[in-house]
Fold:
Amino acid sequence: METVAWFTAVIGGLIITATAIGLTRVILHLVAVKRTLQDLLGGVEVIATRTSTVPIVLPSVNESLRPVREFSDTI
Structure:
């Protein structure tokens, strides 16, 4: 009976070891995904700031283009 107990303990240890290795790999993959998503979020924020609207400049641009609009209305 002692042999069966040791055999069960060894098999149980192997199963636990394999599970621990698998879970460690999952954790490492999740950390890599988290880093990638942080980089992606940073890039999206940069794009959002660079493509934001320009309400301060818009009135002056409209004012400077008034002669062009008036000329095109006469055509």
